[in-house]
Amino acid sequence: MRAALLAGATLLGLAGGARADEQHFPLQSYRVGPYAAGGTGFFGGFIDYLNLINSRDGGVNGVKLTWSEGETQYEVERGVEVYERLKSRPGIAAWNPLSVGIAYAMIDRITADKVPLITINHGRTDSTDGRVFPYVFPLLLNPYSETSGIVAYLGTRAGGLDKLKGKTIAVLYHGSPYGKETIPIYEKLAKTYGFKVEQIEVPHPGNEQQSQWLTIRRLRPDFVVLRGWGVMNPVALKTAQKTGFPVDHIVGNVWSNSEEDAIPAGDAAKGYVAITTQASGTEYPVIQEIVRKVYEPGNGNLADKKRIGSVYHNLGVLNGILNVEAVRIAQGRFGKRTLTGDEVRWGFEHLRLDEAWVAELGAKGLFHSINVTCANHEGEGRVTFQQWDGTKWKVVSDWIAPDWASLRPIIEASSTAYAKEHGLTPRDCAAEEQADAGARNTAAEHASAESR
Amino acid sequence: MIALGIVPLVGTSYLYEAILTPFLALALAGLGLNLLTGYAGLLSLGSAAFMAVGAYAAFNLSLRLPILPLPVTIFAAGLVAALAGVIGGLPALRLRGFYLAVSTLAVQFFVAWALNRIGWLSNDSPSGIVTAPRLVVAGISFEDARGRYLFSLAVVALLTFAAWRLVRSPTGRDLVAIRDHETAARITGVRVARTKLLAFGLSSFIVGVAGVLWAFAYLRTLEPAGFNLDRSFQILFIVIIGGLGTLRGAFLGAGFIVVLPLILARLGAAILGDGFDSGTLEMCQRIVLGILIVAVLIREPAGLTALLDRAVGRLRGRAA
Amino acid sequence: MNPDFAFLVEVIVGGLLSGVMYALVAIGFVLIYKTSGVLNFAQGAMVLFAALTFVSLLERGLPFVGALAATLAVMVVLGLAVERAVLRPLVNQPPITLFMATLGVSYVIEGAAQLAWGTQVHGLDLGIDDTPFEIGGVLVSRFDLFAAGVAGLMVAALTAFFRYTHTGLAFRAVADDPFAALNAGLRLPRIWSAVWIAAGLVALVAGLLWGARLGVQFSLSLVVLKALPVLVLGGFDSIAGAILAGLIVGAVEKLSEVYLGPFIGGGIEGWIAYVAALAFLLVRPSGLLGLRSVERV
Which segments cross the bilayer (chain B) (predicted)? Predict the structure, then answer.
């Protein structure tokens, strides 16, 4: 027993050797199991972008980007194991688990280790409050702004937010903490805009939804919002067809918006609309460059080239852009070398990419903009809506801004409670911003000039 | 048994945090299930649910009665899990074998549903995932990697000793009597119904405490998804692979189930290189793990304990 | 028709048709349990493997019939291989060991399926239009009717097999009394092989129908969870029981979700079927059909 443990320890305790001027991205990826399709797309896109930066620019200002992968199968304990295994690698920039459960288990750990945790489009809503969660970044979109964005879009469909009055919206949610998270927000928005909301739970995994859709059929709602996950999404679309609900009145949330959610439903998905923070498709210059400079030499990460430009792949690329730009911005402040996790955190807190900068990165139209601050770790990401035409997604709306101001008090109430529970004192962002003000301007100009 | 006490006290935080602490928690769960399945012959697929009951009970007790010291909280959580076990074990009075096993799935799915549905249980946290309280006993913090491990070790050692006493007591003999021949046991005066429920209660107590360790000492968060059916199967694997009806079996089985995949992963990465597609690696690993499980069962259906005993016996024979 | 009543009928019809789908998976379990006393948890993995193989072959340009034939062949080989490599060496072991072995097998099959065909999700179109039609104000799904028809055909084929072929008769003899069957000179391994092949074929049918409903992806292996309460209610060893129990479970599940859900909270489908099956067994311990010897105290 003991010998086995010791042998195991020697075998497992291996860590990579240190090299100068490298920034490392440990990846808790999931390429196997129920969510593998999302994992391969997202981590594939992320790695593809890091590859592009290395091969095109020789890294970020000469600092090479490296990464290592550990398989989690989307399971929390495997994610923790991978964290413990990879955390000793030198020069870690940030963690990007793409899993709410794993992210939660890491919050204490990364805060102690002073490394940023990026939960793009998902994660803990109250971690938007950077005063309480200095190292956690739910970039672009948290569940509350997603809800607000969806309701804003339904408003445009109804012909104005005021026209939502008297309408009925059914929310079909996955029977999990994730699915339930937005229940109070829909209730709140229903009160604000005067529509009626019916929230219906689908038990995990959601491979059988006859009764839920019969209930919907009886309710005759104007719209159905699909807050689904994995197999629940195509089954919802199929069952909607089976019970005669028009598919173009179903709006999917950010985890119901991929090709993997629509394709299995076949024809039943034609006309389905879903929210997204990044458009899909390959027409954006940065994706074109990935095709030319990464895939053509045979270094692409996706096994199936047809998936280049898919929703998860583009989300991965976008995640790569945000991580790389944060490193670049931090370098502008701290120097062109391997940065510590805390320095990269500063970079994320000053991740302000306006439309011009986004265009410069070759991502115009791929995503809108981001504006992260010390207090706002989400960064005011805009959302857009896309419709499935049977083979691919097509953007059908403008970039919509969720109503952040009305959500902020709820977020702060929750983060304040967290701070109290854990005996934390929220940071004074104004003071920190002031101290940094001078440095930031030069950093931004500097980095912007060099980003080509 | 003794070897477990001499666990190396030197090691990286990875060894403690990612291997030894989960190993201890799962071994303890295996120990609990072994009382039920190995000794009393009752099959359960609800272990993960009892772990969840223990973990959430401990969370709520420490949240709402912060005055209780941690050991008391953990003990009380075990009692709550035991109660759930007795309720979940009621079908055992009528059913047996796979009918009973599948019936315990009712508990498994009901607990998952209730934890998800009743917000109060997770302190109305909007995302349903809650953070475990700190591991502090009598002012001494067990928050660092080694502390968490030692804390788990102490709990596991204590309960292992208790289980060891139990199986040698008259109650322990009653359990075995029911497993071996229920009618005969009844004739010899064993109160079958009471003993079966007792087996469920005792087993769930230990499994519930294992759930506390899993959530508090290892993951540091609680979410219902972590206690799903796969976890129940994992614990059943630990018991079967380790050896039914032996206390050592749970530890050997947990070693097999926790450590082996990690070694396979490292070996795979070492052979195929770091850059190798982690998904392909994982799938190969899964296949190898499945084959190894089947191989162990074919080679030694009585489990690793029997294999070990035979190996030791052979060594002794050679030495003599 | 009164709209409330029409809705009730709709819920029941939908439930019954879903129940047929559950029974379809349950039958695969029954075949193997009946002859060898094994609860074959790899059935779910076999369903996944069959559907994934079929759809991958289809996407690689094979015609429908060709893909079907090839998948059929693969499932036969798989069934034989599992029986030969795993079950035969474990003969006479306690049922729990066999159960665990089938779990190990499910790891291997799932791993191999994803390794061979990738982790992509696929749509599967069997060419049945799933627009609903109305009978007296009640919506009925065309696809579910088709699935029920296929299930009926399959049960008829299995019944014919057991009644009129030599192997089938031997199978029933083994199921009734393995020792007597051995004495009569029946070759058990041959029958087990036949049963595993049959279970593989049932997995293929279930895989195609469920695959068309869910899309072909990893979660397909989770459909076994829908089959387990059916097995408790109908008995692990009765095909007729599985069908009847499937219908009951389907209807109970939908009725309670729709009518009970609003009172105790939605999403109860995950466990209500188990509770209903248990409650039934407590009231009537001899089981649904009253024929089998339930393992009870």
Answer: 14-33, 40-59, 65-90, 97-115, 149-167, 197-219, 231-247, 254-272, 287-308
pLDDT of residue A447: 54
Selection from B297, B104, A133, B86 nearest residue C274 by Cα = B104
Of B6, B125, B283, the CB nearest to A32: B283
Over range A264-285, report the average pLDDT: 95
pTM of the model: 0.89
- Residues of chain C with Cβ-Cβ distance to B244 below 8 Å are 96
The residue out of A260, A276, A292 marking a domain boundary is: A276
d(C-alpha B309, C-alpha B246), whole Å: 12
Q: Among all residues of chain B, which has the CA nearest to that of C236?
A: B99
Candidates A8, A71, A176; nearest CB to B263: A8
Lowest mean pLDDT across A386-400, B114-128, B164-178, B259-273: B259-273
pLDDT at A373 over 90: yes
Do residues A255 and A355 share a domain? no
Q: Are residues A128 and A201 in the same domain?
A: no
How far, CA to CA in Å, does A197 sit from each of A206, A403, C84, C178?
21, 19, 56, 60
Closest chain C residue to A241 measured between Cα atoms?
A: C131
Nearest CA in chain B to A76: B226
Band the pLDDT of A58: cuts 50, 70, 90: very high
Residue among B37, B91, B236 whose CB faces C278 most closely: B91
Check CB contact of C265 with chain A, cutoff 8 Å.
Answer: yes
CA atoms of C76 and C84, how far apart (whole Å): 12
Q: Where in the sequence is the domain holding A232, given as residue range(s)?
A: 144-276
- pLDDT for the residue C135: 82
- Number of structural domains in chain A: 2
Contact C274 B291 (CB under 8 A): no
Cross-chain Cβ contact B98/C268 below 8 Å: no
Residue B301 banded pLDDT, cuts 50, 70, 90: confident
The 3-state DSSP class for residue A97 equals: coil
> Which chains neighbour B (Cβ–Cβ under 8 Å, 3 or more pairs)?
A, C
Is residue A195 located within the same domain as residue A75? no
pLDDT (tens digit per residue) in C121-138: 888 988 887 778 888 778
pLDDT higher than threshold 50 for residue B140: yes
Q: Do B290 and C99 touch (CB under 8 A)?
A: no
Mean pLDDT of A185-204: 94
Pairwise CA distance, residues B263 & B271, whole Å: 12
A residues 108-167 closer than 8 Å to B (CB): 108-109, 124-126, 143
The CA-atom distances, in angstroms, between B262 and each of A131, B227, B255, C241 are 37, 21, 11, 44
CATH of the domain at A206: 3.40.50.2300
Q: Which chains touch A (3 or more CB pairs under 8 A)?
A: B, C
Instruction: Domain ranges for chain C, please list them.
Output: 3-248
First to last CA, chain A: 57
- Chain A closest CA to B177's CA: distance in Å? 32
**Is residue A399 situated within a structural domain?**
no
Mutate to test the interface with C, among B42, B43, B104, B105 (most CBs of C within 10 A): B105
CB contact under 8 A, B8 and A70: no
**Closest chain C residue to the Cα of B38, Cα to Cα:** C96
Average pLDDT of span A88-111: 92
- pLDDT number for residue C94: 85
- Is a pLDDT exceeding 70 seen at residue A145? yes
**Are residues A250 and A367 part of one domain?**
no
Q: Are residues A263 and A294 in the same domain?
A: no
Domain termination site, one of A276, A301, A319? A276
Å from C158 to nearest chain A CA? 27
Torsion of CA A333, A336, A337, A341, to 10 degrees: 30
Spell out which residues of chain A touch residue B267, defining contact as CB-CB under 8 Å.
Answer: 11
- pLDDT at residue A446 is higher than 60: no
CA distance to partner chain B, nearest, from residue C50 (Å): 17
